[in-house]
Amino acid sequence: MTSSVTLLVVDDHALLRRGLKNFLESQIEGAQVFEAESAEQAYEQLKSSPADVVIMDIELPGDNGIEAARKIRASHPKTKVIILSGLPAGETFRRRLKESLRVGVDGFLSKIDVEDCAVLAVRAARKNLLFLSPLSATELARDLRTGTADSSTQSQLTLRESMILKRLAQGASYKEIADEQGISVRTVDSHRTRLTKKLSVSSREDLHSIALKMGLLG
User: Fold this and answer.
1) Which site in 52, 100, 144, 206 is 20 to 30 Å from 153, CA atoms measured?
2) Domains annotated on the chain, with CATH
3) Any idea what the Cα angle at residue 51 is, between residues 109 and 135, rounded to 5°?
């Protein structure tokens, strides 16, 4: 990228914020990078020095990154907003990703991908393109797959599989489920294996998400 660009990095962790600032300045020719440690400070910074792209942590004191993105898009419609998340892969990560997309962010990066993806995300945002880091794209695809799976395979589950899915989602142990169902712990494990294959998931957290969508936990 050769044209000048003004960036604002927003993160309440000074070491991470300054590290990302220095990285962007070294990788993007002509970049002018400002810092803010909170959403409120970012609002003030944008009043005096509008930015082309804001790169903002999702967890901030005061307004979090999602709420801040919504406000920035309303007050500075030409400013692009990229969200950073330090959350691990899983249901919470996917929920915050979808919340961010609903408010219209221009990118969503996991902090584990940031050095590989930050410059690419800035380039994409300036071209009015949405950028998702590899982990973000993978988690969104997983959510879409599980959403499809719960509607298409619910009718294929046996009554026992539905009951075991419900209890697994509720956090019951294999022994508790075995005692309730009058089966062995090994049989419970076999049912869980079949469930993960039928529903195209791998973790208990994913099973919980599907059970919730199926209405088994309501």
Assistant:
1) 100
2) 5-139 (3.40.50.2300), 157-214 (1.10.10.10)
3) 5
* Mean pLDDT of the residues in the chain: 89
Give the confidence band of 1 by pLDDT, cuts at 50, 70, 90: very low
Angle at 73 between CA 68 and CA 79, to 5 degrees: 105
pLDDT beyond 90 at 202: no
Q: Where are the alpha helices (DSSP H) in 60-113?
A: 65-75, 91-102
User: What token pair was written down for 69?
Assistant: 């993105």
Tell me how far apart the alpha carbons of residues 179 and 171 are, in angstroms, rounded to a whole number.
15
Separation of alpha carbons 29 and 185, rounded Å? 60
The three-point CA angle 77-42-116 to 5° equals 80
pLDDT of residue 3: 64
